[in-house]
Specification:
helicase activity; alpha+beta; single chain; P-loop_NTPase; 5-stranded antiparallel β-sheet; 35% helix
Length: 636
């Protein structure tokens, strides 16, 4: 009997009948979804750079499909991101550009209205929008990578200075001090030097226009201080009383206006941080209090203007308020009174990026004429020797045959007969403050130092014997010729800087009689002084005088105001005044007389008149050609 097995029989799957109506609905949903996404993507890409327009069209799409705008925006961001585009980043970039344009509006009311409307369109609080904008300003510096060759070329460019070795051009400086230290007076002295083009404590300045945003002192006080500095209407100085941070747009408009007419503002004084924020509700301890510093940095970059912002110190001698003020400035100086009886002041360079190395520098403040005399670095016992060595090196490198040529430390030491280690130390300090440039030799780590534009030794030899043209610029006797490379080029005529006396001359081929200012009666016949010098003059050499030569004005000469720097009005005898066209030199007494008859370098010759620059003070004066005596030829 055969057993039987019951094997299950597999049944075929049942095929459901097709529902045409349900399938059509699914296809319609897919088509509607595709059309919905296509429309969102199309509007987003069409208005990629116009966030306001894009949001308007996306809102219309949301209403058409009866969904929320947030959902539509999320879909738009997802679709566009798949194509490598970040809509939020594009919207942020557009917001920053729009706010920058609005910030340039002069009318404060209209500016605030537009900012509020923009924040409303972006659906965010105005404070959040402005916070994002200011953070964008902080991080707006482009990311630029340099090859080593490009970096070498970048670092060999000459640094732009407002005050050589002290204040770079186009930066924001914070100067703080306790009341009565003289912080505003120091800036007024800098302003005088900038608009007149005269050295500040022997350091060259970049001449140009100055702007004073004065909100801390009455206008009558500001005018009095301008008069003390002998700043009249002929000098490019403008004062804006009561300026506030809300008027930043007006400041930018004024800077742009001066730049477009070719007369850019070189120095702008902002006095003071507390006064210009008088209308703000933000505490000086909040980070937002320093927002205006970021705006000033932006203006400095765009217009090349140096801003010196005056602030008050706290009881510890540091800048008062938020640290953001300190961090936002490129340079931070602190001024303090060292000795009230002597007028000594200590200037602390606390932070620097390109300017004076950090340290404590000593100045003497003169109450009578509100001037600051640089005395040297505090505690530097070798100041006299170091400063003398520095000036000798500087003058030697500025000679026409050496200018632009790189020299090693050993070469400079051998030429000048100086100690090699001393020269190396001094050159490092000179490089740090920007008075010399350096670059490494191709082989080894040896550094070579130079001033001016780099050139090869062959170029120097081809131009060193080029004769001077006596009438090189007869149309403009006030213009400095190319051969006038510096106030002093001669090793024999050097400036000495020490902790007691600062930058002052110590050696000169013209030596006045011993203690002549104290032992000789002021009514002495000054015609006899011309014969009391040790170095003989070149007789009957008027026709030999050329630009760049060293000369001495005679005691019987006549000073001409046209083309000359103004004389200190307090030292001008009656009946002469500061507006006199000519003044006999022998009618002047005291230090000014000895200055006007001291060694000077010829910077221009125009017919029978000659313009010279005093080797000690840098003051320019015009005399008759017959009133000067040739002391030494420029290549002699």
């Amino acid at each position: 009997m055969v057993a039987s097995h019951n094997t299950p029989v597999q049944s075929e799957p049942k095929v459901l009948p097709i529902n045409p109506q349900q399938d059509g609905m699914m296809m319609m949903e897919l088509q509607n979804k595709q059309r919905f996404e296509d429309e969102i993507l199309k509007k987003s890409l069409q208005n990629l750079w116009e966030p306001a327009h894009r949001k308007h069209y996306l809102t219309q799409i949301a209403r058409s499909y009866d969904t929320s705008i947030e959902t539509v925006e999320e879909i738009a961001q997802l679709l566009v991101s798949n194509m490598g585009v970040d809509l939020e980043e594009q919207e942020f970039t557009s917001m920053v550009q729009t706010v920058r344009q609005i910030e340039a509006i002069v009318d404060e009311g209209l500016r605030n209205f537009k900012l509020s409307r923009l924040a409303k369109r972006l659906r965010m609080p105005k404070t959040d929008m402005m916070n994002s904008y200011y953070k964008a300003l902080i991080n707006q510096a482009p990311f630029v990578d340099y090859t080593l060759d490009q970096l070498d070329q970048l670092c060999t460019q000459v640094k732009d200075w407002l005050v050589s070795g002290w204040i770079p051009q186009g930066i924001v400086m914070l100067l703080h001090a306790l009341g009565g230290a003289g912080k505003s007076l120091m800036i007024y002295e800098l302003i005088e030097c900038v608009v007149k083009g005269q050295p500040w404590n022997g350091y060259q300045v970049r001449q140009g226009r100055a702007l004073i945003l004065q909100s801390d002192e009455p206008v009558i006080v500001t005018r009095e201080r301008m008069q003390i500095r002998e700043l009249s209407r002929e000098y490019p100085v403008t004062v804006v009383p009561g300026w506030q941070v809300e008027n930043m747009a007006r400041l930018e408009a004024r800077l742009k206006e001066y730049a477009e007419i070719g007369d850019p503002v070189r120095l702008c004084m902002v006095d003071s941080v507390t006064a210009i924020n008088r209308n703000t509700l933000i505490s000086e301890n909040d980070t937002e209090y320093a927002r205006f510093m970021l705006q000033l940095n932006d203006l400095g970059d765009r217009y090349g203007c140096t801003f010196i912002v005056v602030h008050h110190s706290n009881s510890d001698g540091e800048s008062r308020g938020t640290k953001a003020l300190y961090n936002s400035a490129s340079e931070v100086w602190g001024l303090m009174v060292a000795d009230e009886s002597t007028g000594d002041r200590i200037l602390r360079v606390q932070k620097t990026r390109m300017g004076r190395p950090p340290g404590r520098y000593k100045f003497q403040f003169e109450e009578e004429n509100f001037t600051f005399t640089y005395l040297g670095r505090e505690g530097d016992e070798s100041g006299e020797e170091t400063a003398h060595t520095e000036k000798r090196i500087e003058l030697w490198l500025n000679e026409d045959e050496h200018r632009g040529i790189g020299y090693e430390v050993e070469e400079i030491a051998q030429y000048l007969g100086l100690n090699k280690n001393t020269v190396r130390k001094v050159l490092k300090e000179m490089w740090a403050k920007g008075s010399v440039m350096r670059y490494p030799k191709r082989q080894g780590n040896t550094m070579v130092y130079y001033v001016g534009e780099r050139r090869s030794p062959d170029e120097a030899r081809s131009t060193s014997d080029r004769p001077c043209d006596r009438h090189k610029n007869p149309a403009n006797p006030g213009k400095t010729e190319a051969s006038d490379r510096s106030i002093a080029k001669s090793e024999q005529i050097s400036l000495l800087q020490n902790p007691q006396n600062g930058d002052r001359p110590i050696t000169s081929p013209v030596k006045p009689l011993k203690n002549i200012e104290n032992d000789v009666d002021r009514e002495v016949d000054r015609t006899s002084i011309a014969g009391s010098i040790d170095t003989p003059l070149i007789e009957n050499a008027i026709d030999l005088i050329e630009v760049g030569d060293l000369v001495t004005p005679n005691a019987t000469s006549t000073w001409h105001s046209s083309g000359s720097d103004k004389l200190p009005w307090r030292d001008i005898p009656k009946p002469y005044t500061s507006s006199s066209k000519t003044i006999p030199v022998n009618a002047i007494e005291g230090k000014l007389f000895f200055e006007l008859t001291d060694v000077s370098r010829v910077i221009a010759i125009n017919g029978e008149r000659i313009k010279v620059r005093n080797q000690k003070t840098g003051r320019n004066s015009v005399y008759q050609l017959a009133d000067v005596s040739l002391l030494r030829k420029r290549n002699g």
